[in-house]
Write a structure and sequence with these properties.
This protein is of the alpha/beta class. The protein is built from 10 helices and 10 strands. The strands form 2 sheets. Strands 6-7-8-3-9-10 form a 6-stranded mixed beta sheet, sandwiched between helices.
């Protein structure tokens, strides 16, 4: 079943149009990537989904039209956004950040169980559970941002450049944890990532954007087999 679908979506900031006819699908429980150079419209696509930019076209989530929905409505339907730059709350502890992610939930037992699950998934966070987020390394802050988003119990996790600014080994750790999160929770993911080899570790399909348009889509295997993708994103 298709969980998220964008059909001929356009988006603009004031009079400046950034997206021009972007289309993509994310299956329920699946993982899809968005590739493209800087300025291609990747982040704007995520903002269109999250309801933080003016859009036209059609966006549906679990058969519900969310094209003109605001961020609160989108979040309440089950979409959680991990923005570029992580966005943790630096003056709150790791545990407090996780509890903020669950602020709309009423199931206290479930919240406690999910915290235990995430601390086992991200052991560094468990070791720093009482520390303020500002004291964490970049990789730990990224893991906390992912964990906090998961605490909302979304059906779709939208991630904007999760490897940005991280060392290669740390990026691998983050993606290993994302893969395990998928396997153990069944959550769907939409991942914007400039490091295509990392993205292809977890996504089954991807869409390539150029100057705000969808120019190529396919399975991960299909895209990795195309010369233009290898040259542009895979180092040859």
């Amino acid at each position: 079943m298709t969980l998220l679908e964008l059909t001929d979506v356009t988006a603009s900031y004031g009079k400046v149009q950034v997206l021009e006819g972007v289309s993509l699908q994310v299956p329920d429980g699946g993982a899809v990537g968005i590739l493209g150079a800087n300025g291609a419209g990747k982040t704007t696509t995520l903002r269109a989904i999250s309801g933080t930019v003016n859009v036209a076209g059609r966006i549906t989530f679990d058969r519900t039209d969310i094209t003109h929905s605001g961020p609160e409505k989108v979040a309440s339907l089950g979409i959680a956004h991990v923005p570029e730059g992580r966005g943790t709350l630096p003056n709150l502890s790791v545990r407090e950040n996780l509890l903020v992610g669950a602020y709309l939930r009423k199931d206290r037992g479930g919240v406690s169980g999910d915290i235990d699950f995430l601390l086992e998934l991200f052991p560094n966070l468990g070791r720093r559970i009482g520390q303020n987020a500002s004291t964490l390394s970049g990789g730990e802050q990224q893991m906390l941002a992912i964990a906090r988003a998961f605490m909302a119990k979304p059906r779709l996790l939208v991630l904007d450049e999760p490897s940005l600014g991280l060392a290669p080994s740390t990026s691998k750790d983050v993606y290993d944890s994302l893969q395990r999160l998928r396997e153990e929770s069944g959550i769907a993911m939409l991942v914007v990532e400039q490091n295509a080899p990392l993205a292809f570790r977890i996504v089954e399909a991807a869409t390539v954007l150029e100057t705000g348009r969808s120019v190529l889509s396919g399975t991960a295997a299909e895209l990795k087999g195309r010369d233009e993708i290898r040259k542009a994103y895979l180092g040859g």
